[in-house]
Amino acid sequence: MINRKQPLTQAQAMNRAAALCARSEQAPGDIRDKLIKWGLGNNEAQSVLRQLTEQGFLNEERFARAFVKDRFAFNGWGRIKIAHQLRLKGITTDVISDAMTAIDDEQYRNRLLELLQAKWRTVKGRDARAAWAAMMRFAASRGFEAALSSECVKQVTHLDAEDD
Known about the structure:
This protein has helices spanning 10-23, 28-37, 42-54, 60-75, 79-88, 93-100, 105-123, 128-141, 146-157.
C-alpha cells in the first residue's frame, strides 16, 4: 500500500493515472491537477500527460464528446452551461464547438420542453409575470439560450411576456 503522505514516483503516478483514464474519460487538465497533487513536478506531470496521450488513455476530443453527451442526456444541461464547464476544464474552443455538434437541434428543443413542463407544475399557481420569470430563470440556470427558452416557455405555459 502506498503511503499517501509520500509523493508518488513518476512510474506510480503514470500507472494510477492510466487506471483512472481506463475507467472513464478524463479531462487532461483534471489529470494534470491530480498528478501535481500526487507530488509530481511540472516537468514530470507533462511527461506523464504526454505518455497518456500517446498511449491513447487521454484524448481531449473524446473527453469533450462524452462530456457533452452525458451532461445533455443525464443532467439536462443546455449548450451554454456545457460549453462553460468544458472551458473551465481547459478544453479549447474548437474542440468544444466540434463536440457540440453531437446535440441534435430537435432533441435539444424537446429536452428543454420536458424540463420546462416539469418545472411548470411547481410554478403555475403564481401570477403570470412571476411564473414567466421563474420559468426563464430555470431555463437560464440549465444553460439554455434565451431565445429558445422564451419560445418554449410560451409553448408550455401558454403565457406571453408581452401580455402583462
